[in-house]
Amino acid sequence: MQKIILTGDRPTGRLHVGHYVGSLRRRVELQNSGDFDEIYIMIADAQALTDNAENPGKVRENILEVALDYLAAGLDPAKSTLFIQSQIPELTELTFYYMNLVTVARLQRNPTVKTELQMRHFDGGGVPVGFFTYPISQASDITAFKATVVPVGEDQEPMLEQCREIVRKFNSVYGETLVEPEIMLPDNAACLRLPGIDGKAKMSKSLGNCIYLAEEPEDIKKKVMSMFTDPDHLRVEDPGKTEGNPVFIYLEAFARPEYFAEFCPDYRNLDEMKAHYERGGLGDVKVKKFLNNCLQAELEPIRKRRQEYQKDLGYVVDVLKKGSEVAKKKAAETLADVKRAMRIDYFDDQELIRSQAAKYQG
Fold first, then answer.
1. N or C: where does the chain have the smaller number of CB atoms within 10 Å of the terminal CB?
2. Domain at 4-193+314-353: CATH code
């Protein structure tokens, strides 16, 4: 069996460092590993419209923003297929067929759906059907490309489990047709869910607590120096907590060994810095300055590459157009398999025609 990756992001804004450490950085590593036969990276605009239906301009404007972030982070169109979800109509048809395999009660139990509903406020309390059923849409996206691996953050685990349920249900009813995917979580526990700079559990564009990949150096520094930390660490000499401390969580995600030698030679590694902070004698300002240096070193090459791609948006559009053509062809193959399994491939089924003819002739 081929090893295939499918993953992506909703284009509701520029990508932030939570996206980067949660999955984007890993995608680039996997792409360059040579271990996978096909890699599909989707800009999920149709999914974004499920809760932005009355503001399509927001989604439209961010298509290129996300594509620029992808390319700047190191995704290579020669190795990965970058495409736009809405340009693949086969995904919508697959979603429609899968809807018959999932109950309303099962969707209501999906933890990710519950969390997302709590975070959003729909007018009049009405939840759009498209938003409510987006786990089914995600299953369509994944199975359309026969993905064997889906690299995402831990908040998407319930979505992958629901996808696997749909695959098993379809295969049990119609015969072995769909591929059951596996989730790939970040190796680094700190990358599973990077908190916001305000200390809230999740970095979110809607909460305004993000550091964006394309952020200017001064803006990054300003945000880092304002970050929430241990509220009881009032004086330098006070012992401080590192567990659950956003500044140290970020350092776990970004502090490479070489950064200590370059930016903070007082410590050989993060464990030594943590130990000093916990026993007292290390101030938040010094720790934040080190974090700022780590982020600047990590994001500067991304920002520079993005600036170069911004000079040739025609190239970026061409990448998405060609990628969408490749993706459409792959999804069409899967849709044909699905319709054949469901026995709704009427015009391709010569046996149906022969049997019906024999019935009436007999």
1. C
2. 3.40.50.620
Q: What residues does each domain of the chain span?
A: 4-193+314-353, 217-309
Which strands, in side-by-side order, build the sheet including 4-9? 81-84, 38-43, 4-9, 149-151, 182-184
Q: What is the spatial distance between Cα 19 and Cα 25, in angstroms, rounded to a whole number?
A: 8
In whole angstroms, give the CA distance from residue 197 to residue 295: 13
pLDDT tens across the length of the chain (362 residues): 899 999 999 998 899 998 898 888 989 999 999 999 999 999 999 999 988 888 888 899 999 999 999 999 999 999 999 999 999 999 999 999 999 999 999 988 888 777 777 766 665 567 788 888 989 999 999 999 999 999 887 778 889 999 999 999 999 999 999 999 999 887 776 677 788 998 887 777 777 899 999 999 999 999 999 999 999 998 999 999 999 999 999 999 999 999 999 999 999 999 999 999 999 999 999 999 999 999 999 999 999 999 999 999 999 999 999 999 999 999 999 999 999 999 999 888 777 777 777 778 76
Whose CA is closest to 46, among 327, 337, 335? 327
pTM over 0.85: yes
At 251, list the tokens.
């350092």
Q: How far is CA 107 from the centre of its chain?
A: 20
